[in-house]
Specification:
alpha/beta, seven-stranded mixed beta sheet, six-stranded parallel beta sheet, 17 strands, 26% strand, globular, binds NADP nicotinamide-adenine-dinucleotide phosphate, binds zinc ion
């Protein structure tokens, strides 16, 4: 990440139009109305009127500059990378979408397209760093990219996704980050029928992980710190629920899991979960706590277990996931909020009080 990122230029670029948004001015300011410029679509671009944008815990980490060591925040910061909207304009070279289509944008809006990762369709691991949807380097207008807490976005067609007709747009928005981030590692690590799979943390990512593990036919176990989420976990598709702070309940599952997905946003004891893996089992971290986790290597050495990470997913895989959701009628369980309640939603995220994703109704921006 270019740590020398600058805010977008104050001067209005001739080929831009104004877009309403909510932005954070500092790590402690909260979010407030903000107007920024979007580029007028180039021949390869799609202009989208944003209908809904999910609230990812990453938005909170970024807005509060909790990832300062790796991705310092440039203010004003307009977060949002779970975007669903209606196509309102397309450039003359755009083939895959037309005006009126429902389209989506996730965590990246470009990448180098030349490196081995890009050529392999794993643009999220672009060796020249993907262009993040927000707090990335805007290679066209200069300055920093602005995300989906806004009424419009303009993106190169190669980084725009199609949403299956009929999927509820408010519930589909979170698929663009929470969905692909849980779907991708499950495919990579071979989650199928007959496997025993754990999902740690029943928040936005976790509840999508449960839906996918269940849909893929795995025996699915949820690990939660919130006893009040037990019934929901079962309704979402879990076969068993374990209160992770109860060591007796944890001990019953020692050495039994093929795969565990850890979607916890805060510091926690990872070794307690490593010990639940069988020989050659894998635990993948998708949660991104701001402080390092202490790993007891002996837990890995015995039984040749592995501990890895995973970042969102590539564009083709994101489309595959959206199509899978279209076919199986999978969306996120959302609480729809007006944008004026976004600060409150962050406070609730910190308290694990989310069922199970906030989705901002962007019509609420019109009154600003
Ligand atoms: P979220 O909705 O806030 O869910 C996080 C869940 O973690 C909570 O609901 C809670 O579940 C559990 N949790 C919270 N604090 C905990 C603690 N101290 N100890 C144990 N469990 C705790 O967050 P999210 O949007 O799903 O995001 C989760 C993490 O993934 C964030 O760090 C985010 O930045 C990261 N992320 C990574 C990627 C990627 O590409 N790798 C993509 C998106 C997000 P219970 O109540 O069930 O315990
Ligand atoms: Zn996200
Ligand atoms: Zn690349």
């Amino acid at each position: 990440m270019d740590t020398a990122l600058k805010p977008a230029p104050e001067t209005v670029h001739p080929a831009t139009f104004p877009s309403k948004a909510f932005a954070a001015r500092s790590a402690t300011s909260g979010l407030a109305p903000f107007t920024m410029q979007r580029r007028i679509p180039r021949p390869q671009d799609v202009q989208i009127e944003i209908l809904y944008c999910g609230v990812c815990h990453s938005d909170l980490h970024q807005v509060r500059d909790e990832w300062n060591m790796i991705m310092p925040t440039v203010y004003p910061c307009v977060p949002g990378h779970e975007i669903v909207g209606r196509v309102v304009k397309v450039g003359r070279d755009v083939k895959k979408l037309k005006e009126g289509d429902i389209a989506a944008v996730g965590c990246m809006v470009d990448s180098c397209r030349k490196c081995a990762s890009c050529l392999a369709g794993e643009e999220q691991y672009c060796e020249n760093f993907m262009t993040l949807t927000y707090n990335g380097e805007d290679k066209i207008l200069g300055g920093v990219t602005y995300g989906g807490y806004s009424d419009s976005i303009v993106v190169d067609q190669n980084y725009v996704l199609r949403v299956t007709n009929g999927l509820d747009p408010a519930g589909a928005a979170p698929l663009l980050c929470a969905g692909i981030t849980t779907y991708s590692p499950m495919h990579h690590w071979g989650v199928t029928k007959g496997k025993k799979v754990g999902v740690v943390g029943l928040g936005g990512l976790g509840h999508m992980g449960v839906k996918f593990a269940h849909a893929l036919g795995a025996h699915t176990v949820v690990f939660t710190t919130s006893p009040g989420k037990k019934d929901d976990a079962i309704r979402l598709g879990a076969d068993e629920v374990v209160i992770s702070r109860n060591s007796d309940e944890m001990a019953k599952h020692a050495g039994s899991f093929d795969f565990i997905l850890d979607a916890v946003a805060a510091e926690h004891d990872i070794n307690a979960f490593i010990n639940l893996l069988r020989r050659d089992g894998n635990i993948t971290m998708v949660g991104a706590p701001e402080t390092p986790l202490a790993v007891d290597v002996f837990g890995l050495l015995f039984r040749r277990r592995s501990f890895s990470g995973s970042l969102i997913g590539g564009i083709a895989e994101t489309q595959e996931m959206l199509d899978f959701c279209g076919k199986n009628n999978i969306t996120s369980d959302v609480e729809v909020i007006p944008i004026q309640k976004v600060d409150e939603s962050y406070e609730r995220l910190v308290k694990s009080d989310v069922k199970y994703r906030f989705s901002i109704d962007m019509a609420s921006l019109k009154s600003e």
